[in-house]
Amino acid sequence: MQPQNAVSIEFFKNPKRFADLLNGYFFNGAEVVHWESVQERDPVLQKIKGKGTKVSTKANIVDLFRNVEIDGCRIGVFLQNQTQIHYAMPIRVMNEEAEEYYSQWKELERKHRAKKDLKGAEFLSGMGRNDRIDPLLILIVYFGEEKWDAAESAQKLFGKAVESEKMRGILTKYPIHILDMRRFENIDNFHTDLKWVIGFLQKVQNKDELQRYVTENREIFENLAEDTYNLLAIMAKSPILETLKDDVKNAEGGWNMCKALDDMVKDGERRGERRGKRLGKDQINKLNRLLLADNRQEELLRSVSDRKFQQKLLQEYAL
User: Fold this and answer.
1) Cα dihedral angle (18, 24, 29, 35), rounded to 10 degrees?
2) Tens-of-pLDDT digits for all 319 residues of the chain?
3) Lower CB count within 10 Å: N or C terminus of the chain?
4) What angle do CA 237, 243, 249 make, to 5 degrees?
5) Does the predicted model carry a pTM greater than 0.90?
6) How far is CA 30 from each of CA 20, 115, 190, rounded to the nearest angstrom?
7) Integer Cα distance of 174 and 152 in angstroms
8) What distance in Å separates the CA atoms of residue 189 and residue 24, rounded to the nearest whole number?
9) Distance separating alpha carbons of residues 96 and 58, to the nearest angstrom
10) Radius of gyration for the alpha carbons in the chain, expressed in angstroms and rounded
11) 136-142 and 73-82: which strand pairing?
12) Which residues contact 108 (CB under 8 A, 6 or more apart)?
């Protein structure tokens, strides 16, 4: 498993964050999903087919599978984390949804076969006329730097067919749900530290904006949960933040991102100074060699004590 996927799964395992994610994305921040209703499900979707002595199996693993309660109804939720754009995502989502519905149907069939309570068309269907299945929501959480430009519905994959007025109305639309973390505008919809994760990622490409955002919300960023710090460090693609983690744990048991960013800036400045010194020394050595080659010994001697004159010579030789 890729580190990005591992840390995002760990982050959203928290039921309060999971409920907040659904409420913020689907319900504009209203507390429709209560975190107490979040129930863990096996993320491995097994499909087993058997005929005679031959049995075939197929497994599909989703990042997180949870049951939640919405308006008194049990709803299944698949969460898929993406760091790369997936141009076949509507097909992938349709397949995962169909597999879950297929699994529910087969479970109903198994129970009916055990009870022997179906006849006629119901027996052939493996499902009674009054049987119902739990609906499924699939949410893709996209962490990528590039804007999601893949199809957001199955219909967008159908090419010229959707340009036909006769066909457009009868073709399956099948929209998919994508939370683009770096471009989602209504971050105040979220009420857990998910809000600060999104805000951080939206500013991580601009050092000054990020520093200002973290400073303005210092109380939050000075005491992050470990899984939150891990997620930010990995998704920001910052090995330095990962390295600094052991040095920024605070007395309260949280992780101080403010100190980590300050240390990262200072480390960068130290590296820059060392690099500048090395570069300056190399430039002067090269200038001296060129002056000697051009029989400009007097100017070489003058440049040793006259810094402005030395800079003029550096510019002359384009160094």
Assistant:
1) -10
2) 688 999 999 999 999 999 999 999 999 999 999 999 999 998 887 666 666 566 666 677 899 999 999 999 999 999 999 999 999 999 999 999 999 999 999 999 999 999 999 999 999 999 999 999 999 999 999 999 999 999 999 999 998 888 888 888 888 889 999 999 999 999 999 999 999 999 999 999 888 899 899 999 999 999 999 999 999 999 988 888 888 888 898 888 899 998 888 887 665 555 545 554 554 677 878 888 888 788 887 777 777 777 788 888 888 877 7
3) N
4) 110
5) no
6) 9, 43, 9
7) 9
8) 5
9) 12
10) 30
11) parallel
12) 126, 127, 128, 131, 133
Cα first-last separation, the chain: 48
**Which residue from 76, 47, 79, 75 is spatially nearest to 60, judged by alpha carbons?**
47
**Distances, alpha carbon 172 to alpha carbons 140, 157, 177, 279, in Å:** 20, 11, 16, 62
Neighbours of 242 (CB within 10 A): 16
Q: Give Cα 283 distance to the centre of its chain.
A: 44
Question: What is the token pair recorded at 252?
Answer: 């309260």
Q: Which token pair is 83?
A: 């760091």
Cβ–Cβ < 8 Å for 254, 231: no
Q: Are 152 and 129 in contact (CB under 8 A)?
A: no
Helix, strand, or coil (residue 82): strand
